[in-house]
Amino acid sequence: MSTCRKHGNKYEFIIKRKKILGKPYTVRFDDRDEGQAWCDHLEGLLDAGIVPDFLADHIGRQEKPLIQTLSDLIIEYKTSVVIKPEDINLLDRISGSDGALLLSGVDYDWSESWVSVLKRVHTLAPSTVRKYVGALARCIDWGVRKNLIRVNPLRILPKGYSTYTSQDIAEAGIQKTDQERDRRLSADEEKSIYTVFDGGGCVDVERPLLLKYKPALVCLFELALNSAMRLREMYTLTLDQVDLDKKTIFLDKTKNGDKRQVPLSSDAMASIKVYLNSVNDGDKGMREFSHGNGLLFPWWNADSGKLSLKKTTAKLSKQYSAIFNRGGLVDFNFHDLRHEATSRLFEKTNLSDLQIAKITGHKDPRILMRYANLRGSDLADQLW
């Protein structure tokens, strides 16, 4: 019920509904009975869950929104902290599926049940389960520090929580394990790819593979093999990011959300120069493209929206899969070039792990070492 007090020659009414209004709402009337009737009507609406439009500004001026659900916590966390893009995507998915959960229900029993759902319903690989748990755990850690939630139950999950148990396997109908990619590109396979670029192929087919923007396809392949850059990092490059005088590519924003400088080897430099000349000289394979939009490569339309990037990535991945298949490469995809390039950095240079991580953009040294599977023959050459 509202409270009333005399304020000069007027009557001041104070209405309190903390969960709806946040701070008290104050209104003044010349006549006490008129004011009381108006306040009674408003309180009846608020109690019924109806908030009149004239209160929108009052509610909008609250210092802090009410944080009651997991979705509320995630929204507040995302607006208060700089978060990795990968974590944002994971948190958005969590909010969509479990956002309605009250923070009071975020306990250990729920955390165990949630991890089980990730395995038994969504059949995610253990490494992906750990990514989901890690992203949400960092969010809840922040909530604990801000006194928005009491404890973080995800931090006391047992070791090996992401591994599929016998019950997980029985309910999911499948056992997912982490598959570390160690696919290397042999010298003969590399030659076969260039054979495809030249119009041939190891697979017996009647017609050559149609390769639109062939000079760009060759350059992108060689840049991946010599720089360890990710596919999206390369096809979104602008001309001003490529500094040939400094032998460096400057990445403004990477998968991890950080800037990165990628030094260019002599092979990478030569490849880029050949490609730029093909565009500038009107090579028939590049006639429909110019650098007028400032982009280095022809496939992306400069739309940074998720859908545009996803479509471009899918299109290029499909194109290179066709090239690799025509070259007779078994179980090889474009991302394996990043693995190959990282391994070559270990094999061909004396760079330290930290220096290589600076080039490739790997944050976790353990993940970097997964890529650095050196050939046994190369290691053997260094033994006595």
Helix/strand layout:
Elements: E1 3-7, E2 10-15, H1 18-21, E3 25-29, H2 32-47, H3 56-60, H4 70-80, H5 85-98, H6 108-120, H7 126-145, H8 166-172, H9 187-197, H10 214-227, H11 231-235, E4 242-243, E5 248-251, E6 260-263, H12 266-280, H13 306-326, H14 335-348, H15 353-360, H16 365-371, H17 376-380
Antiparallel strand pairs: 1-2, 2-3, 4-5, 5-6
Helix pairs in contact: 4-5, 4-7, 5-7, 10-12, 10-14
Q: Could you give a short description of this structure?
A:
The protein has 384 residues and is mainly α. The protein has 17 helices and six strands. Helix content is 49%, strand content 7%.
Q: CATH superfamily assignment of the largest domain?
A: Intergrase catalytic core
Q: So what's the overall shape?
A: elongated
What is the helical fraction, as a range of percent? 40-55%
Mean pLDDT over the residues: 87
Q: Give the helices and strands as they follow along the chain.
A: EEHEHHHHHHHHHHEEEHHHHHH
Beginning-to-end CA distance, first to last residue: 89 Å
Kindly estimate the percentage of residues that lie in beta strands according to DSSP: 5-15%
Number of extended strands: 6
CATH topology value of the largest domain: hpI Integrase, Chain A
Helix/strand/pairing category: mainly alpha
Please tally the helical runs, counting DSSP H or I stretches of 4 or more residues.
Answer: 17
Low-confidence stretches: none
Largest sheet: 3 strands, antiparallel
Neighbour order of strands in the largest sheet: 1-2-3
CATH architecture of the largest domain: Orthogonal Bundle
Whole-number total of structural domains: 3
Rg, Cα atoms, Å? 29 Å
Name of the top-level CATH class of the largest domain = Mainly Alpha
